[in-house]
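Translate structure to sequence.
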């Protein structure tokens, strides 16, 4: 073969490091591969924990009238199980685990666009999981309201732990959005020279599409979590019917994200499946462009199907029909991708290794799950089964023994590349068949139970109902079979890591760029440069045919981003802040009792509140340490495919998520206003003060734009002055805003009128964004004052300026809908 491969990196044979050295390395690392491994193994931990909870559920339901797990404890286990599986296993493992590890490798680059943002994102994800574990097993009880957290159960005084999960979802979401923006910026701005978008491997397309979908839709979940949290803590609500709110609006917010989340969970794994199919069938992907268009079609259509989760709620028939049609339409591009995978395998010289079995298992399982999904899109049928075990079986059919099969396939396929070792084929087959048989034993009976009328989310059932006992018992045996399969899987990984590194660079004979690196790859990924011709998405095959070779590069000439404590410290501070916001507050205030003395609070509340205040200086220390450390220790010329730098590109994509967040909240307010629920009070906040604030904020936008231009033109004194004036104008705006909030809060009770609640939620959220933007402007000011910015190191001025313009534009919209309308 004419394409050469990288030799094994020298550090493979280095002396074994101590545990602290390894932990410290992963705390500070900016290496996308180590970050990917963190996501993968933390996700596997969440999967194991969620799986054990699932076994507990099935043991309770094995026979009628059991007392192993009854009442609220059953609901708590059910809630935590679902939250772990969805938000801490399926989504992060595919998108951020495999995505982080293999996206830069497949693009032929050395890292993602924003390496330190990547470090911060993974530790924020871990912090959110630690917060869930803390809320579940230590500081308080887990919520027992189901993973959908429907209103008003989520704010019932008898339910505890909801605040923990709301904060955890928000922290997890921030990390997820940063990671998604990072991926999008990497793909648009950093592909290896010669690789166009249409020559990217299909896995890269799946990550790109999923990142866009995440940025577009996550605002729905964030809005639902934020509004629920604020009602728990301060009493403002968009959902409380007692003050004119609409409870179903919470479901609208939640499902606006949580149905697209099904495709956030699915699309990365479909990319993995396509890579496995092409490599193991020894032929190119069937219908490459059609599959790309199908993936992008899913991104668009999946954003307009969320209402099919609410057919039985009572929405107008015209809306139900429209969303039913959209549900049927979204099945078309999904089915096309299944044909792409089958067509790739058809006629190929298939290598029947473990990854291939997982792929074929996925095709069979997902086909059945998809068909049952179409049935649920039919309104009359959905009415009959919507709260039954039919829905449970369908969801797990698509996710557990559908999508999760490709997660396993990805592990077996890329394990030699990640570790340099092979998983046992024999043990792998045991794992596969235990999962295959266990999945059908668990969930096929649940389809039948649903059709027989067994409702979901009940902790018991009466004896004597036709076949209920027998089917539930078989389902429990299936869950135990899955548990056995999980144990076999863990053992397979463990025994593999005990063996020496034997895998070559390309053990499967793959055709994408990751197979030119050593196994495992060196920190710099590649010790060579690639040809600049990419005839197809399978460059190694093309170059072998044309005789092109890789150009060796001296690894000593390669410069990588510096590791830094800053992102980890910042994420750790947000963990402390999350704990404080969950179990404490800034004052001893509760909506039901009002403001009380701090001494009357419980010990846990006092501890959490103190932790909340302590987290603030820790946060700023980590953030400024991060900003004060240059990304590279030496001047480095950055590779960009566009005229924009990575900071601009990353922030541009991230702003898409901010637009989505405010769009969801403002759409909810507009609905409440138009429907007559949110009538403004006679004494609204003064319009003249809003106009004055508008002048101040718009002026600050011009000032920071001029400062940015001064920086590019080398006028450093004027640049620093412009940033300082921007900070002063932002501070004046916040002073007036605090005055307005205090005055309006004393004149009216935001807990008694939904218009006031909407005002405090949306305008208050904008105020928080002003603070975030102010901190963002302070960072380049600090960098400029400490000499950290030059022609090679532009600091964070470009993303800070972009974000500041965003909060100005949002303010103009707020003035229109709250002060003028």
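Result:
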């Amino acid at each position: 073969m004419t394409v050469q491969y990288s030799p094994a990196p020298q550090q493979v044979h280095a002396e074994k490091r101590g545990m602290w050295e390894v932990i410290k390395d992963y705390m500070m690392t900016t290496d996308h591969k180590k970050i990917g491994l963190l996501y993968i193994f933390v996700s596997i931990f969440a999967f194991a924990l969620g799986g054990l909870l699932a076994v507990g559920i099935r043991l309770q339901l094995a026979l009628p009238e059991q007392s192993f797990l009854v009442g609220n404890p059953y609901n708590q286990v059910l809630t935590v199980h679902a939250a772990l599986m969805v938000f801490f296993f399926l989504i992060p493992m595919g998108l951020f685990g495999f995505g982080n590890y293999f996206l830069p490798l497949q693009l032929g680059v050395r890292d993602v666009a924003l390496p330190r943002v990547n470090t911060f994102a993974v530790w924020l994800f871990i912090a959110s999981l630690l917060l869930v574990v803390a809320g579940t097993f230590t500081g308080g009880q887990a919520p027992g309201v189901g993973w959908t957290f429907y209103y008003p159960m989520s704010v019932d005084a008898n339910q505890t732990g909801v605040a923990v999960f709301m904060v955890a979802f928000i922290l997890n979401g921030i990390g997820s959005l940063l990671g998604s923006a990072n991926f999008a910026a990497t793909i648009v701005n950093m592909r290896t020279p010669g690789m166009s978008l249409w020559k990217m491997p299909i896995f890269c397309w799946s990550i790109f599409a999923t990142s866009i979908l995440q940025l577009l839709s996550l605002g729905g979940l964030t809005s639902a979590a934020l509004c629920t949290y604020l009602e728990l803590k301060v009493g403002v609500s968009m959902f409380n019917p007692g003050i004119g709110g609409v409870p179903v609006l919470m479901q609208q917010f939640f499902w606006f994200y949580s149905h697209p989340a099904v495709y956030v969970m699915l699309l990365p794994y479909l990319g993995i499946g396509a890579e496995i199919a092409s490599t193991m069938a020894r032929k190119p992907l069937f219908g490459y462009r059609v599959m790309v268009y199908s993936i992008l079609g899913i991104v668009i259509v999946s954003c307009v199907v969320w209402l099919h989760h609410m057919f039985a709620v009572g929405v107008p028939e015209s809306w139900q029909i429209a969303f039913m049609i959209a549900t049927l339409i979204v099945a078309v591009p999904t089915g096309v991708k299944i044909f792409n995978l089958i067509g790739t395998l058809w006629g190929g010289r298939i290598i029947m290794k473990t990854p291939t079995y997982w792929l074929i298992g996925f095709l069979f399982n997902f086909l059945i799950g998809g068909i049952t999904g179409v049935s649920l899109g039919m309104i009359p049928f959905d009415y009959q089964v919507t709260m039954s075990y039919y829905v449970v079986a369908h969801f797990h059919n698509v996710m557990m023994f559908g999508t999760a099969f490709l997660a396993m396939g990805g592990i077996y396929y890329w394990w030699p590349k990640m570790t340099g070792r092979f998983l046992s084929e024999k043990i792998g087959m045991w794992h596969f068949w235990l999962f295959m048989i266990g999945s059908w034993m668990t969930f096929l009976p649940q389809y039948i139970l649903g059709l027989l009328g067994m409702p979901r989310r009940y902790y018991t059932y009466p004896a004597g109902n036709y076949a209920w006992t027998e089917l539930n018992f078989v389902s429990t045996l299936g869950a135990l079979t899955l548990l056995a399969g999980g144990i076999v899987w863990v053992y397979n990984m463990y025994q593999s890591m005990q063996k020496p590194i034997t895998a070559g660079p390309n053990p499967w004979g793959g055709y994408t760029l990751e197979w030119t690196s050593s196994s495992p790859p060196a920190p710099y990924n590649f010790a060579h440069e690639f040809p600049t011709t990419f005839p197809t998405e399978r460059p190694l095959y093309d170059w072998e045919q044309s005789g092109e070779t890789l150009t060796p590069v001296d690894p000593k000439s390669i410069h990588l981003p510096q590791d830094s404590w800053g992102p980890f410290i910042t994420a750790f501070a947000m963990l402390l802040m999350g704990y404080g916001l969950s179990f404490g507050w800034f004052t001893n205030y509760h909506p039901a009792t009002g403001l009380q003395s701090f001494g009357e609070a419980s010990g846990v509340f006092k501890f959490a509140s103190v932790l909340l205040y302590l987290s603030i200086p820790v946060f700023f220390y980590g953030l400024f340490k991060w900003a004060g450390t240059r990304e590279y220790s030496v001047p480095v010329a950055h590779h960009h495919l566009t005229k924009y730098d990575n900071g601009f590109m990353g922030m541009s994509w991230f702003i898409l998520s901010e637009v989505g967040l405010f769009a969801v909240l403002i759409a909810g307010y507009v609905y409440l206003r138009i429907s007559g629920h949110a009538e403004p009070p006679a004494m609204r906040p003064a319009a003249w003060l809003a106009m004055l604030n508008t002048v101040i904020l718009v002026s600050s936008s011009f000032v920071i734009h001029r400062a940015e231009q001064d920086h590019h033109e080398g006028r450093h004194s004027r640049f620093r002055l412009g940033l300082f004036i921007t900070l002063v104008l932002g501070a004046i705006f916040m002073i007036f805003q605090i005055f307005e909030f205090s005055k309006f809060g004393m004149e009216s009770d935001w807990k008694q009128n939904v218009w006031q609640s909407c005002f405090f939620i949306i305008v208050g959220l904008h105020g928080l964004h002003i603070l975030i933007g102010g901190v963002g402007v302070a960072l380049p000011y600090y960098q400029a004052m400490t000499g950290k910015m030059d022609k090679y190191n532009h600091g964070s001025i470009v993303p800070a300026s972009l974000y500041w313009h965003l909060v100005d534009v949002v303010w103009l919209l707020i003035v229109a809908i709250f002060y003028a309308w």
